[in-house]
Write a structure and sequence with these properties.
Length: 257
């Protein structure tokens, strides 16, 4: 059994992050799989200067609409299988890296945001369901699952600073939280809560308005989930809230596989 270290970060524009040199810390970190969301770039637009480490494998899934969404995965692990899972991401918005190694199906996902309008919220909920159905098929085939990324929903009242004020805001609507309940009930473990239980004031996203990050008025919407069979293998799960460069911060997982 080997210990693996994973990092997930919504960078809100990989070219903007590069200009701030905000990914340089990767060179000093021992990361087995680095997962980035909302890169907002095509593969050829990703700067070679983001970090010096030369990962053997990169898996870029860019949106068909330039300048939006997009995910990227960097690793030295050789995949058994990798995919963009476009039967879940049916609008081709560059939302999923599916990466299989050993008996693990690993997913880096930038889930849709439902704040634009009712139609977009409906798309978000349908995306959630398609994704869960896909995971359940893989589990039925005997795969263990690890999912990371920006889920765009705070699960419970402890996962955002002002729950009452946001009850009617997408990202904390009852239908979204109900789906999170369903996801957990299907056998997926929120690794941060598994380690840190009811630890308060632990957030991964802050609005750029009103000094929200300085005042820690945030939301925890970035997660690592694992299928229940991996629960006892979790060594650590954490939030790197001191790392700047985006309106999100990185989150991490260490697990034995």
């Amino acid at each position: 059994m080997k210990s693996y270290k994973f990092i997930s970060w919504n960078v809100n524009g990989i070219r903007a992050v590069d200009k701030k040199e905000a990914l340089k810390w990767i060179d000093k970190a021992d990361i087995d799989i680095l997962s980035l969301q909302e890169i907002k770039a095509q593969k050829e637009q990703i700067p070679t200067t983001i970090f010096d480490r030369n990962y053997a494998n990169s898996h870029i899934n860019s949106s068909s609409k330039k300048g939006q969404s997009g995910v990227a995965l960097f690793t030295d692990i050789k995949p058994i299988h990798q995919d963009i899972t476009n039967h879940v991401d049916i609008l081709d918005e560059g939302r999923i890296n599916e990466f299989h190694f050993e008996n693990i199906a690993f997913f880096n996902v930038y889930f849709p945001n439902g704040q634009r309008n009712e139609e977009r919220l409906e798309y978000k909920m349908a995306f959630y369901d398609r994704f869960l159905n896909h995971l359940q098929k893989l589990r039925a085939e005997g795969k263990s699952i690890i999912v990371c990324g920006d889920v765009n929903t705070a699960h419970t009242t402890i996962d955002l600073a002002r729950p009452k004020a946001n009850e009617n805001t997408s990202g904390f609507l009852k239908c979204e939280r109900d789906w999170m309940d369903k996801f957990v009930a299907c056998g997926y473990v929120d690794t941060f809560r598994h380690i840190h239980k009811n630890k308060p004031d632990s957030y991964s996203w802050w609005s750029y308005r009103s000094n929200a990050r300085t005042n820690n008025v945030g939301w925890r919407i970035d997660y690592f989930f694992v299928s229940e069979d991996l629960k006892n293998n979790i060594k650590d799960a954490y939030i790197l809230d001191k790392i700047m460069g985006s309106d999100h911060c990185p989150v991490g997982l260490e697990i034995e596989i």
